[in-house]
Structure formats: structure tokens, C-alpha cells
Amino acid sequence: MAAEVDQWSAAAVQADGVLQPEEVENDDGVYDDEELNEGEVNGNWTPQEKALHEARLKAKAKRRLRKSSSRDSARESLSEAVAGEAGADPNSPKGKALQNHDRKSRTGKGRGLPKKGGAGGKGVWGAAGMVYEMEEPDAKDPNYDESAQGDTVYATVVPELEEGELEKTVNPIVQEYFEHGDTREVEMLLKELNLGPHKYEFSSLAVSLSLEGKASHRELTSRLLSDLVGKVLPESDIARAFDKMLKDLPDLILDTPEAPQMLGQFIARAIADHALPMNFLSRYKGRVDCDHARAALDRASVLMSMKREMVRLDNVWGVGGGQRPVKHLIKEMNLLLKEYLVSGELLEAEHCLRDLEVPHFHHELVYEAVIMVLESNGETAIQLMVKLLQAFWKSGLITLDQMNRGFQRVYDELPEINLDVPRAHSIMEAFVDLCFQESVITKQLRDACPARYSMHTDTRLNSRGFYYL
Hints:
By secondary structure, this protein is an all-alpha fold. It is 58% helix and 2% strand. The protein has helices spanning 2-12, 33-42, 47-86, 93-101, 163-180, 183-192, 201-211, 215-228, 235-247, 249-255, 259-272, 291-306, 326-343, 346-356, 362-375, 379-395, 400-420, 424-437, 443-447; strands spanning 452-453, 459-462, 465-468.
């Protein structure tokens, strides 16, 4: 019996020392489970058979465990191989990695470039240079508020100009205005700026620049304030600007000694133009301690009392250069020459001519001076006019071109002048010779002077004698 048990044990034990029930032989070759179970039921098992049966059960359980674990590992290996070849499992880490690195088209089309040239996709603003138009609110939008649509205002916000940049921005605008004189352009530029609480300083800066400039600049500044009040600058801001300038007069007179008188003229002109309130002067009665401010207010009061019946003080700055009518310029030059013939003051005449600020129109002064000489009786007018033209010529106030044009105009009109002044030819020739001797005109201009023609004898007469043609 012991030999039979050893035979069964040798046939049932394999590499890991566990009995394999399928390999246990019986009388016919191999013992199977049914025979063993029958032996157990009949109670014919010996202790060795019973021990062998228990060993077989343990080996069977271990064998089943190894088969199930090996079957699962083989299935996982197969699924990984298939996913690696075709990318069938997008949820696996390997599948995601393959998807991220594979940028080729699935349809076989395209060049693999970014979608929409890089202008599409989540979190992308769009291509460079793309302009988005404002979209109308969608009534189907869950956040659509019909009651708030009427109150929505879309406007361009202009940042407020800082105080340090105000002067740098305003000065070029005023300087250009002095050149073109177009108040509408200044109005348009100011509307584009956000001056904020410093808007009043525009008026003070413009007036300060004109004080350092010419009379025409001051005339233009007065017109600018008159045109801007009520449109861009309120009356209160202009009043505040003049308040500031009255306080700054001690500093203004350092560069412009005549600043108090000029500021008074500005105030009077602004009140007449309704740029300042009518009670502006009455506010300062008995409240001014500064002598310069008092002088400015006194000047304004005097001008207002003299021009009370006039709506505008148009002539407060004298002549405004080329912007004045030609007839007015001619009248001013005639008045200048007449005053000079009475007083004989060259400096005053030169000062008045410079204040006219019409260097392109100085030929009119030469023309009027020569006409006065022809219409005068006596040598005094000739001597004074030669002296005047000589002074203007040496100072450069009258150029060569302006001098030649003035004389040439008289030459062209001499036949007509001779009808009213019979001695016009002889006086003209004497005056021309004297001007040439004093180096007022050139030899060419002297020779161009027309001689007098006799209608009866066909002779030409000049100051040097008769010449027959």
C-alpha cells in the first residue's frame, strides 16, 4: 500500500510541489475526481488516500489562481498593443500623448498649419490688426436687460490734461493762431482736449503770449476770447483768468513794462465784447492794494467811460496789420505823414509805421509821401519828406522793392496828376534829384522819371533844360 501511495505522489507533484489531480493514475491509467468522490462516499479511503485527496484540492485551487492571473495580464498586454498601433483608446495616457503629438490631418488633407492662421481657438483674441465692430445686444440673451438699453451711452473718454502739460499743449495752439487767425480751428482743437478744472488758464496763457508779441497779436487775442466765450470758455472762466493776471502783474512787468496798461485795454475790450461781465470793474473798487493792478483797472475804466456808447472797442489796439481794410491803412498812413509834417519827429513816425505791421504795404507810404510833395507849396515839405524817406531807408523799414514800387506808381500817374498840379513835372524832377543825392533811390530809378512833354512844340523839358526830339 505504501508503494502505491508513492506512485500517486510522484505522478501528482510538479515544479512548484503541488499535486495535479488530472495526472493521478487509477487502475486503468488515471484517477479522476468522480472515482475519488465515490471512494469518499463509500468510506473506503485509507488515511494515505485521504491525505492525498486534501493535497489534490490545494493544488487545484492554486492552479486556478495562476490561470486567472495569467489570463488578465495577457488581456492587458493585448489592449496596450492595439492602442499603441491604432490609438483606439483616447482615455489612456499613451493615447493622449499620441493625440497631442500627432498634428497630421486625419483626412489626409491640409498642410498641418494652425487653424485660421492662429486666429481661432479657445482663448485667442484674433489675428493681428483685426478690428471688432460693436455688436448689438441680443434680445434672446439670458442677460439681456431691455430697461437698461436706453440708458447705455458709448463715448470716447479723453484723459484729463495734467497741469504740467497744459502750457506745452496750449502755447503751440496760440502761436499758430497768431499766424492764421482762424478762431474756428482753435475752437475745434480745444474741444478735443480735456482741460478739466484748468480750462481758465487757456485765456491767461493767450493774453500773456500776446503781451510779449505785437499789436496784431493782441487784437487777435481779443477776437479769440470774444469768439470762444459761450462756446468753449464760459464767462466765469475768462473772469477768473483776468483775476489771475491782475495778481501776476508784478511778474509780467519784468518782461513787459507796459503790461498794466495793456491788461487794462484787454479788460475794457473784453467787457465791450461781452466776454467779461459788466460788473467786473466794480468788484475791485476799494479792494486793490497792488499799484500795478490799480493802474490796469484805472486804464480800463477810462476806456469804458470814453467808449460808453460803442458796442465794441475795435480800435483799442490800433491797427491790426494786414487784417485791416486797405482804405483804413491808407487813412492811417496819410495821418502819419501829416502829423510828421507838423511835428517833424522821425522817431514817432517810425514807431507809428511799425505799429501798422504791414511791411508789404510800405510802398503806399512812399506813394503818399511823394503825392504830398507834389501838392505842397514850398521847399519845406520836400526837405522833410526826403529826410523821412532817408531815415526809413537806412533803418531798413522801407526796402528797395517797396521804394521802387512807390516811385513807379507816381511815375505812372504823373500825366493825370499834372492836370490838377501844373507844376507836377518840375517838382517831381527836383524831388527825384534830391532823393538820389541823399542816396534814397538808385540811379536807375532816377533815370526812369518821365520828363514833361510840350503838347505844342513837341519838346521835352526837364530841370536841366530843353531837349528837342
